Amino acid sequence: MKPQMLIRIALRSIRRTKMRSTLTALGIIIGVGAVIVMVAIGHGAKSRIEQSIKNLGTNMVVITPGAANTGNVSQGAGSFNRLKIEDAEKLKRESVLLADVSPVIMAFGRIRGNNGTNWRCPVYGVDPAYQNIRDWQVGQGQFFDARDLRARRKVCVLGATVALQIFGDGEGAALGQEVILRDVPFTVIGVLAPKGQTASGTDQDDVIIAPYTTVQERLAGHQFIAQILGSAASPSDVVAAMTEAKAIMRESHKLGDWEESDFQVKNQADLADAATGATDVMTILLACIAGISLLVGGIGIMNIMLVSVTERTREIGIRMAIGARPADVLLQFLVEAIVLSLLGGLLGVALGYGGSWLVGRLTGWPTMIDGVTVSVALGFSAAVGVFFGFWPARKAAALNPIDALRYE
Q1: What 3-state class would DSSP assign to 367?
Q2: Same domain, yes or no, for 317 and 219?
Q3: Who has greater pLDDT, 97 or 70?
Q4: What pTM does this model have?
């Protein structure tokens, strides 16, 4: 029997029992739609995390304090801080692969505008190279330069959130104004372009940036620094730059070959892998849970096909009596099950696209549907039709023609 004829017979049989076929395919429809929506949410979250990591900077290398050991028990990363300005200066002098280097000194406290508005946010003391490392554009005004750094000038650049909270959203309203940081007046010379949130939900724009020499002398008051940021000249140099930075830092800290490093060197790829690893696991878990409804839909198809075989026993006997072989009958019912599951799969794809759009619209979450997910979902729905349709089809093919003709 020709494939076109088999498909026409299958469609005719499905149309004869529209309501029953629709309810049977509902499990497949919901299953495929749920899989697409869950995977779309997972991929969207992963994409957002990767974009947040990318926003951190260009080819960035991050050096952070190491871990202290008390009674042979590690106290965790960052618990033993020996990073100093001298380390950053040594990296800047001796590194070949790091195009830019900047120390980061952190200070916290209340910020007060000259209009009396108060706000609380971190203050970062950095080198002018920080702007290139973080690839952070200035929306208004300008970034401070090396002369400001050497002269320890009390100038600062505001993040977009701080500028909005203290001076409002007027164009250039913050430029030239003063903010009081721990009773020290700083002149605002620029406002940074918005960066948005990090993958952990931290607002990157809720920050004030000033020369590290000024912050260390006027605000921080301690010799150790929070971290050192560097930027490799190209993505291919990042790994080599990390190795070079580690060697320079060990020399700066006078560590022997037998001693462990008292600092950590990471790059954006490490951060991205750590952040997206949990998202990948969650996406797979959600897709598997949603896929259970596909199996439920397959059981529904098997059930309805068994009922169909019973109802059409006399029809099967007539077909065999006029020359149909058992293989033809098996193929007829198998194609009917596959067509039913594929139709459910196509409707499920439409449901998945609509559901993904609706989730993004209502929640603001990013969603991303790729062709691979759709293809896998459709392929799986066809496989469900084959797997759960084979037994009823085989049962139909095994009927005795004489018994089938006598069946009422």
Answers
A1: coil
A2: no
A3: 97
A4: 0.60
